[in-house]
Specification:
By secondary structure, the chain is α+β, with helices and mostly antiparallel strands. It is about 25% helix and about 40% strand.
Length: about 575
């Protein structure tokens, strides 16, 4: 117990946020499956469960619930029927620059070398791709910004090569609205008013940000080919207001810094072109969070002081609750086609990724770690809750695999193979969330040992390995694997997992923590990159592998599924 408390303390005060993000995102990319055999399996399962309590180590790591006999089965079956408002706005961005001087002639002959200093106002309107939430619904964010920028630039023409370099500094103000994707357009006309939080639709969030930044960019042209790169970094203040149920409002306020690096490759001239844009941003936040009951005079007064005067409460009080410090990183990458026509630009993202790692520390010592990572339509989410003594609360922590717009046929197959031969029909694409607890990850590790024990029993003769002699149970197999790793004989363990299904079992067993095990599901297998199909395919193969050794098709996988019609 004391050792784990010390681990929890290190988690709170040790590594920096950036270091911890690196730890979270590091993991082994794993794949696989399993085959058949029944002799003595049920007896061995029972023996393993009987001895587990006495022989199980108390802890396998700060983020790892140990191998454990199976937990009660929830409902992993996709059951369509839930709906949400449909629609949403097309993702994209439009930017217009209003310079003090402008030249709109794309065929003007450039001088051999030139330079200038100019000021401009830049207006920008952005609609982000829809994001999937933990209940299967989709949310979407739209924003407008006004940017005052001072730029010094120079150009040179060397035969067929044109170069343009610039350095700039500026001040940018952004107002954003986020709501359910199917209701975003109506929530923008008129937009929610943070001066009157009671009128904001429930679940809607308003953001108000100000940034002061510096940056530099380089554009090169060669025979109709255009390439550019920019780098900018800045600091500022971020404010977010979210309307909650019951007349409450959640506010986050505090400093934020960011780095942005757009890269472009296309055809045309430096001012008139079309091509591919890869834009990456990283935001570092350290803000105060509080919830206000705006139905009370005290809560409403405290709300206005925090949002409009920057006076955040330090402790809970009348009308104020859950005061906490929130820190972390948000990373976004957008890819897509961009068109530039003089001082106007527009782009439409085709794909992208988002990563967020936020740590919330409450005044009573509680801590919550929220991690999410999305690539295209696949998202994995970690929500770990720690008590004031540093112990992870296994009953409050959960993990999610979120699959947006999963194919109906793939979900039908998932119901059959992962849902224990369930025949619930799926006739249209669905957003699916598979919710998992630390205990259920323990069940997966236990099932992995059952598969590996099956392979050991098939070989039968282990004269130099006392753990595997006779009728080994799961604990015996685990102890043998641990000894092989200690003695540097990993190749012997890998020879046990010689088929694809057994390799899956070994990868599940070896996953260093619950996030790594979720990552296996998130990546899946089947080729072609991240997709709901590949994740569902892996889940099907995994459950089928375990079911085979018991000759049953009614064994259900772990977790609880939510299915929702896409927006």
């Amino acid at each position: 117990m004391e050792r784990r408390r010390r681990q929890g303390a290190r988690r709170t005060t040790g590594a920096t946020t950036r270091q911890r993000v690196g730890i979270v995102m590091a993991g082994t990319l794993l794949v696989g499956g399993v085959t058949a055999a029944v002799a003595n399996n049920n007896q061995a399962d029972a023996a393993s469960a009987h001895t587990a309590g006495a022989r199980m180590p108390a802890d396998l790591g700060p983020d790892n619930y140990p191998n454990d006999p199976p937990q009660p089965v929830r409902d992993p079956v996709c059951r369509p029927g839930k709906t949400q408002p449909t629609g949403g706005l097309t993702p994209g961005e439009i930017e217009v620059k209003f310079p003090t001087e402008a030249n709109f002639d794309p065929f003007a002959e450039p001088k051999k070398a030139s330079g200038s200093v100019s000021a401009a106002i830049i207006g920008q309107a952005t609609v982000e791709p829809a994001q999937m939430e933990g209940d299967g619904t989709e949310t979407q964010k739209a924003s407008i910004s006004v940017d005052e920028r001072l730029t010094a630039e120079g150009e040179v023409q060397l035969r067929d090569v044109g170069l343009k370099g610039e350095i700039y500094t500026g001040n940018k103000v952004t107002f954003s609205v986020q709501s359910q994707a199917g209701q975003l357009s109506q929530n923008l006309a008129p937009p929610p008013n943070p001066l009157d939080p009671g009128s904001m639709p429930e679940g809607t969030a308003v953001g108000m940000d100000q940034q002061y930044y510096d940056g530099a960019g380089l554009t090169a042209t060669y025979k109709g080919i255009v390439a550019s790169y920019e780098y900018a970094e800045g600091d500022g203040v971020t404010t977010s207001v979210t309307k909650m149920p019951g007349g409450k409002v959640r506010v986050l306020y505090g400093p934020a810094s960011y780095v942005a690096s757009p890269t472009f490759l296309g055809i045309g001239t430096k001012d008139y072109n079309i091509g591919y844009l890869d834009n990456r941003t990283l935001t570092d936040k350290h803000v105060v969070q509080a919830e206000f009951d705006i139905n009370t005079p005290e809560g409403k007064s405290a709300y206005y002081r925090m949002v409009f005067a920057g006076q955040a409460p330090e402790v809970d009080g009348p009308g104020v609750s859950n005061v906490s410090d929130v820190m972390g990183l948000e990373y976004a990458r957008r890819n897509g086609i961009q068109v530039q026509l003089g001082d106007a630009k527009g782009n439409m993202p085709e794909s992208g990724e988002d990563m967020s790692y936020m740590v919330t520390k409450y005044k009573d010592g509680r801590q919550i770690d929220d991690v999410s990572y999305r690539i295209d339509d696949n998202t994995m989410v970690r929500h770990d809750v720690y008590a004031p003594d540093g112990e992870r609360d296994l009953n409050q922590s959960n993990y999610q695999l979120r699959l947006r717009n999963a194919d109906a046929n793939a979900l039908q197959a998932y119901n059959k193979f992962y849902g224990g031969n369930d025949m619930t029909p799926v006739t249209s694409n669905q957003n699916m969330v598979l919710d998992l607890t630390p205990y259920e990850f323990g069940t997966m590790r236990w099932d992995a040992l059952s598969v590996l024990r099956d392979r050991a029993s098939k070989i039968g003769d282990w004269p130099n390995d006392p753990e595997l002699q006779g009728s080994p149970n799961n604990i015996d197999v685990r102890d043998w694997i641990d000894r092989m790793y200690r003695e540097g004989k990993r190749d012997r363990v890998e020879s046990l997992a010689s088929d694809p299904e057994a390799r899956d079992a070994l990868w599940v067993h070896d996953a260093p923590n619950d996030m790594a095990l979720l990552r296996i599901m998130w990546i899946g297998h089947g080729g072609g990159g991240w997709s709901p199909f590949n994740s569902l395919n892996w889940l099907n193969d995994w459950n089928t592998a375990y079911a085979k050794i018991h000759q049953t098709d009614t064994h259900k996988g772990v977790g609880n599924a939510i299915c929702m019609a896409p927006a």
